[in-house]
Design brief:
The protein is α+β, with helices and mostly antiparallel strands. It has one domain. An eight-stranded antiparallel β-sheet has the order 3-4-5-6-12-10-9-8, with helices on both faces. Strands 1-2 form a two-stranded antiparallel ribbon. It has a two-stranded antiparallel sheet with strand order 7-11. Strand 4 and strand 5 form a beta hairpin. The longest helix has 30 residues. The radius of gyration is 21 Å and the shape is elongated. The chain starts with about 20 loop residues before the first helix and ends in a 7-residue tail after the last helix.
Length: about 375
């Protein structure tokens, strides 16, 4: 039976804590939400009372949205050691480069197929997170992760059902071998027939013990002034630095800064956190447009055009953990459509060969 790529996943539990929930609720959650739950759960169990409070608030928010705060547990692939010969990299840090400052034209609602139009993605001009950029070829992304995390465990998730001899990958989960196997990153690749590139990336940083103002200044030094910032209690937009906890930078695929659309562009409460990322199953995923009930068809309007960098911190004076998510939804939709067309053409070609072969068979009567 053919499985939907967007429904299959390898959860990052390992030695971490994972809770059970229905697959429908799991699909409704974003990768960022699931990773944030994991971070808060781990910190709360370690005695961090602020994390316990933030966990309670997030669970309450998910309950109000009709979502389950728990994640569905799945069995993981066996972890792989880093590739031999990799050089040691720097410790996780914020590099000081600047983001673009160009404003986009006024927002207009896109057509439903707008995200499937040919793109002009330039990975070299996109922002980076520990050396990873949207649109970066899979091999280059892995090399960048090995430089950043040379001692980590790398879990490869192959697409075993893919209809070709050479199987692609959903992506990789990167686990810290020195830090109780906490998840340092998850890389998700696009579908063939084109080269597999990064369309989605999450990175978690633990035990930072960094001042809130210092961290905020470092983020702005690297990525420029954020497009929008919100609190993490009720997700209201704020310009008060001390209250900032959810930070978004919006781009186009040329790496230029994009403007914030009006609140009418967003479902639910009218804030950007209402946009899904089609990575709702919590692990590396490869977007394929082959199901009617998966996350891709449910994403409409502006959310289909979102190219974003999202950093989640806490509004406490000292920040311990951060979660960063990069996503290119137009890239996801383009490659999903291309994969669907390719598979349909392949199936038609195989069917034709079967019919032609059947014409050469002489029956025994």
């Amino acid at each position: 039976m053919r499985h939907s790529i967007l429904k299959e996943f390898v959860w990052i539990a390992g030695l971490a804590i994972v809770f059970g929930a229905s697959s429908q609720a799991a699909a409704a959650q974003s990768t960022w939400t699931k990773v944030k739950l994991q971070v808060l759960q781990q910190a709360c169990k370690g005695g961090d009372q602020n994390s316990c409070q933030q966990l309670a608030k997030l669970n309450q928010k998910l309950s109000q949205q009709g979502q389950s705060p728990n994640a569905q547990q799945e069995q993981r692939q066996s972890p792989q050691q880093p590739q031999p010969g990799e050089q040691s990299g720097m410790k996780p840090s914020l590099e000081t480069t600047t983001g673009g400052g160009q404003a986009a034209a006024a927002w207009e609602p896109p057509a439903d197929d707008a995200a499937a139009a040919p793109g002009k993605l330039d990975p070299a001009k996109m922002p980076d997170v520990v050396g990873i950029r949207l649109g970066m070829p899979a091999a280059e992304a892995l090399a960048a992760m090995h430089r950043q995390y040379p001692a980590d465990l790398y879990e490869r998730l192959p697409v075993t059902w893919w209809p070709s001899a050479q199987k692609p990958d959903y992506g990789y989960t990167v686990l810290s071998s020195a830090n109780q196997f906490e998840t340092d990153g998850q890389i998700s690749f696009t579908a063939p027939p084109g080269p597999q590139v990064v369309w989605h990336f999450t990175r978690s940083a633990f035990h930072m013990n960094i001042n809130h103002g210092t961290l905020l200044a470092a983020l702005r030094a690297k990525y420029g002034k954020e497009t929008v910032a919100m609190t993490n209690s009720n997700y209201e937009v704020t310009t008060e630095d001390s209250r900032i906890a959810e930070i978004y930078w919006l781009y186009n695929e040329l790496g230029e800064r994009a403007a914030m659309p009006p609140t009418t562009a967003f479902p639910g409460r009218g804030t950007i956190d209402g946009c899904g990322t089609a990575a709702g199953n919590g692990g590396p995923v490869m977007p394929v447009d082959d199901v009617d009930d998966g996350p891709l068809p449910s994403i409409k309007g502006w959310c289909r055009t979102m190219v974003s960098l999202h950093v989640s911190i806490t509004d406490q004076t000292i920040v311990q953990n951060t979660i960063t998510e990069m996503v290119d939804m137009p890239l996801a939709f383009r490659t999903a459509h291309a994969a669907k067309v390719w598979q349909a053409n392949l199936a038609a070609e195989q069917r034709k060969k079967a019919i032609d072969k059947s014409k050469t068979v002489t029956p025994t009567l």
